[in-house]
Amino acid sequence: MRRVLVVCYGNIYRSAFVGEYLNTHLAGRCEVRSAGFHATENRPSPPGHVTMSRDFGVDLSGHRSRLIRVADAEWADTIVLMDRHNRAALDALGIDPAKCVWLGALAPGPVEIVDPYRLDEATARAVVSRLEQGSRELVRRISQQPS
Length: 147
Fold this sequence. Notes:
The protein is of the alpha/beta class.
C-alpha cells in the first residue's frame, strides 16, 4: 500500500484539506498522513476554512494539527508539499527530494500554492480550488498505478 504524507507550514489549511481529500478518495488504496512545521500541535482548522472546505466536499471539523516528525517522512514513499518553504524545511530534515511532489504542479497556475492564512475570502477560495484540483489529479494518478 502506498504511504502519502502531505505537508504545509501549519497543518490547518492546505495539508489538512489535501490529507482529508486523499483519505476520502483513496480509502483502502493509500495510507495518508498530514503534518506541518508549526511547533504548536492540536490546533483546529479555522471555522471559515472548515466551512469553505465543506463547499469542496472536505470535512475538516475534526482535524487537529500535527507537527511533522522525521519518522513521518521516513514512513512516506510520497511527500506532497505546497511551497518553497516546505521544500527547504524538508531539505533541513534530510528528506530525499525524489519522494517529493509539488501539489501545484498538478493544478493550473504556479507550482507553489500559497498559504491562505490572512487572505481575503475570494483569494482563499481560489487557493482551496487549486488544492481540490491538484488533489483530484493526484488521486487520478495514484488510482492508475498498479496496487
